[in-house]
Amino acid sequence: MELTELCFAGVARQARAVRNGEVSARDLVAEHLRRIERIDPRLGAFRLVFAEQALEQAAALDGRADEDLPLRGVPIAVKEDIALAGLPTTKGTNAARTPQPADSAIVTRLRAAGAVIIGRTRMPELGLWPFTESSWAGPTRNPWSLTHSPGGSSGGSAAAVAAGLAAAAIGTDGAGSIRIPCAVTGLFGLKPQRGRVSLAPEPQMWGGLVVAGPITRTVADWALVADQVHGAAPGDAHVAHPPRTSFTEAARTDPGRLRIGVSLRPWGPGIAIADEVRDAVQDTAALLTDLGHDVVRLDPPMRDITASTQFAARYLHNAHLARAGMEFPDLVEPRTRAVGELGRRIPRGAVRWAARDDATLTAYANRIFASVDVLLTPALTRPPIRVGEWDGRNVVTALLAAAQYTTFLPLWNIVGNPAACVPAGRTSAGLPLAVQLVGRQHDECTLLSVSAQLERARPWADRIPSGLGHAN
């Protein structure tokens, strides 16, 4: 396999190539760096590229060939809200200057497994939007169409993986921020159970809404990376139950016959679902039926008005806290300040009301899993948005548009369940579509088994964005 092809082959294949001596870790990393140099000026996926350090780490790994390292030499990118030793945690802003004293638990575990951290990927300021754009950094673009967004807030991570600039990336998800970019770039992303992957040195982020996890080309790649990074660390506010098996084993295991509920009911009134999105869900439901599952239509109310109002209050309050917690809060862009100001104005009593019903809503939402094993929904309500599509809107109408776009996603951040974004075909214009699969609490394993079954029946990872293979 030649090097450019290997850049799109994913984590497991790259690790095997290094392990078998098909390619050195240094040569593999060097090829990714060459691709970044050629392609990323068009995409804007990376905020920082660690070229010299990555080559040094790869060369050192080549000198440790006797060690059994599952991710030996694999180049992985990390979103800019994940702590890296010696760098400020910028969170999409210019408002942080103090370097972190140590790597996050996630990065420490990746390095211990032999991964090479190749760069830091872009996000919108404070992760507030389902697109990755800022007035000072410009837009990050979708490798499938440079006029479209790769989503957000982990947009840089997804763009890097989809373009073959990294084998995998780490993203975070507080209201869909792993699932959104995977949905619009044709990748697999699974928001893990809350507490599955430690966020140390942070005990939690955004009041427990945010989780971290891999963004990968295939289900098996996600499982391999997640097997290396999951687990609690001292001080974590949340700890997930141990998985029943390794994630790699789950991805290899047939799920058996499951009862799968299908819901096309948005989380709130008057939200339209595009025909192509509806078709993708129905096609996936038909495929799951063909694969032997018992698929039923199920549109349970999820306390839509109350719960979505509570989420909006928490989101805005957390945006205010996030901005206020930056070293130089006045350096964020006007749009970010406006969102933070909305959060500042929410009365404290309303904030307490918004956060107090988590346990009740969690129990209520999870009643659905008494009758089904997995819930199938749209990932997003429409195909990918264009770069700058909402620029002309004031901040309130932009927030409402974002909430409608992502309506099927935030509930599962509130209640903590694992939820996967699975590629599900293309729009008439050739842009990726996806569906969401939601599992029982602490049960990523079933989602991995079903997602891998769908991938075998409907492969997606062999598709490469036009012009990004042999780049000139």
Automatic annotation (TrEMBL):
InterPro entries: Amidase (IPR000120), Amidase_CS (IPR020556), Amidase_dom (IPR023631), AS_sf (IPR036928). It comes from the Bacteria. Gene3D superfamilies: Amidase signature (AS) domain. Residues 27-448 form the Amidase domain. Coiled coil: none annotated. Belongs to the amidase family. PANTHER family: GLUTAMYL-TRNA(GLN) AMIDOTRANSFERASE SUBUNIT A, MITOCHONDRIAL, TRANSAMIDASE. This is Amidase AmiB2. It comes from Lentzea cavernae.
